Description:
38% helix; 21% strand; three-stranded antiparallel beta sheet; alpha+beta; six-stranded mixed beta sheet; globular; 11 helices
Amino acid sequence: MINNKGILIKNIYYMLSYAFRILKQSNYEDVEAETFDKAQDLFAAILAKGVAQQLKQGLYKEYVTKQETLPIMRGKLDMPETIRNRISRKQKLACEFDEFSADNLYNQILKTAVHYLIRDPGVKNTRKAQLNKIWLFFDNIKRLEPSQIPWNRLRYQQNNKNYEMLLNICYFVLEGLLQTTEKGEYKIASFSDECMARLYEKFILEYYRQEHRYLTEARAAQVKWDLMGETSEAMIRFLPVMQTDIYLRKDEKILIIDAKYYGKTLQRQFNKDTLHSGNIYQIFTYVKNQDKGNTGKVAGLLLYAKTEERITPDCMFNMGGNIIGAKTLDLNTDFKLITAQLDQIARDYFGDFMSE
Length: 356
């Protein structure tokens, strides 16, 4: 099936499998073999499988600060609250202590996502039954308000690295929630453009990193400004950071790709369709500042996700000795054709190293 942006739902799974390599493990094989009508059902399948696996290994625990009123001293004494208890003739101590607990932000987000998927009409009943079994293991874990989740507090290390893919799936689910005005409840909307843009960018980078091993570099790199003369750090801080989405290098040749996922890829100016001027200026700036020696060995590409527009970008230009242009990646096709498009982009610039 196809979502409302013209993307095959199954392709979302394949893109996720590159963005998060854990999905290529054997325990997700049955998810890959299924057909999904809704993106929510796909996410529910991945979470049902992934969280069940995590439960076998044990939920991630960390020290969580708690405040409780206890008959005996534990941790630090909260003196003002204890005094209030005494005034109220409560013979208990207000204590603040650290407890090694599964009731932490990571598991709270998992529980919250599972809660809304169980209630979503786009998730099949068989999948809801799987999620309900998982739900029983989260009885002592708090559920969060989706709009209040501090996503920027998440950090991954050795003990919780398996959570990265699961919580990214949760992010896609919970950031697609819309609050109703009647009962203040939430419902899952379509896969949001912001989430899709992040996945689109990460997928392209990881595809080149995993499938084009001949590349010297495949990463998201910063381009430094090509400044002349002495410039103090105090002045440089006023310049914006040039952060590339995809930076590919083979020896001395560099290809900078800016992944663009928009509802419309072109703008209308003077009765004609043109590339967004800001996008062209951006990629031009990246290329020219990277190619400090004017070697012509740095190229730039705007890679748009194809929309339903009649005209889609497919053009390359020689701008001052550097190749800069725009192409369109069709996500509403067989995944093998998607990867063939990406392979051709690399082949056109770096040559046919994949056959070596």
